[in-house]
Design a protein that fits this description.
This protein has 294 residues and is of the alpha+beta class. The strands form three sheets. Strands 1, 3, 6, 8, 9 and 11 form a six-stranded mixed sheet that branches. The protein is elongated and about 110 Å long. Bound molecules: calcium ion.
Length: 294
């Protein structure tokens, strides 16, 4: 059936009857998506607010389907719709419905560097219209992470994006939920309460390890460093050709770290006093001589 004929017919007959004729119903290209901040916007489909249900784009998402089903692909639905089974939302008061073949929603989300390193989880809840047999497929960019279905009250699913996959996504990614059609006609899947959560970092902090016989940190140009910090192996001591200052702009050779004659004198006096006590103990049994001040 030619696409032009289908398009004309779609104007007078509900296009649901053509579901599955995807060869005649090309899927429109996705426009450049505005980047939403991590961990995503309107993931619980509470905006815009609707009464009962409405064919509207959820805020921050791009929603569409193939040509024949334009405006018949996605709904935002409020709870308590009898024909759809009175299934309560998994979060808030609304969820989204992907009704026909090739219906989808997409959102581009910023991926912070720390989340690229740790990886993250994607959890979401899905269900379907009671009399249907419908599912949902989840993709990150072009990578499929989940495809499945559930009937009855919303059921939570969780998939893990490990650090290897997360790091391959770059600084942002497109998350897509699309219908997983099990047949022609009305195959309405429900989606709600999408959540993205960073995995805990495997290590708190970081370790810098310098190996080799002469570990050195150079400051400045590689071939002409301004100064360097290096290990004196013989004395197990870090040494620097730089002057090292404290935050209050004192150098380490100032103050308590500097040579202090008065402090040295007091230390010597204490050592002498201790030495006298030791000598007196040794000579007392055999002599009456007592070592004292002169
Ligand atoms: Ca919700």
């Amino acid at each position: 059936m030619p696409a032009s004929f289908l398009r004309a017919l779609c104007l007078v007959i509900p296009c649901a009857v053509f579901a599955g004729h995807n060869g005649d119903c090309p899927i429109p290209s996705t426009p450049a998506l505005a980047e939403q901040p991590w961990p995503g916007v309107n993931l619980d489909f509470e905006s815009p607010s609707v009464e009962m249900y409405a064919h509207v784009d959820p805020e921050a998402w791009f929603s569409a389907g193939d040509f024949c089903h334009t405006n018949r692909n996605t709904y935002i639905s409020a709870s308590g719709i009898g024909p759809w089974g009175n299934i309560p939302p998994a979060s808030g008061n609304q969820y989204i419905a992907l009704q026909l073949a090739n219906a989808f929603i997409k959102q581009r989300i910023t991926l912070p560097q720390e989340v690229r390193k740790s990886g993250f989880t994607i959890s979401f809840s899905l269900s379907m219209r009671g009399s249907n047999d419908a599912g949902i497929t989840l993709l990150l960019d072009d990578t499929q992470l989940f495809s499945g279905k559930h009937s009855g009250d919303f059921e939570k699913k969780t998939v893990t994006v490990n650090s290897t996959l997360a790091n391959s996504l770059g600084t942002s990614f497109v998350i897509t939920f699309k219908s997983f059609p099990t047949g022609e006609g009305d195959r309405t899947a429900f989606l709600d309460n999408v959540e993205l959560s960073a995995l805990p970092s495997s290590v708190d902090g970081a370790i810098i390890q310098l190996t080799g016989d002469s570990p050195t940190v150079n400051f400045g140009e590689p071939d002409a460093p301004i100064c360097e910090l290096y290990l004196n192996r013989a004395e197990s001591r870090l040494e620097s050709t730089c002057e090292i200052s404290t935050p209050d702009h004192r150098r380490l050779d100032d103050g308590k770290y500097a040579y202090d004659p008065a402090r040295e004198l007091e230390a010597l006096k204490a050592e002498i006093t201790e030495l006298r006590r030791t000598v007196n103990k040794l000579i007392m049994p055999t002599a009456s001589i007592e070592v004292g001040d002169r």
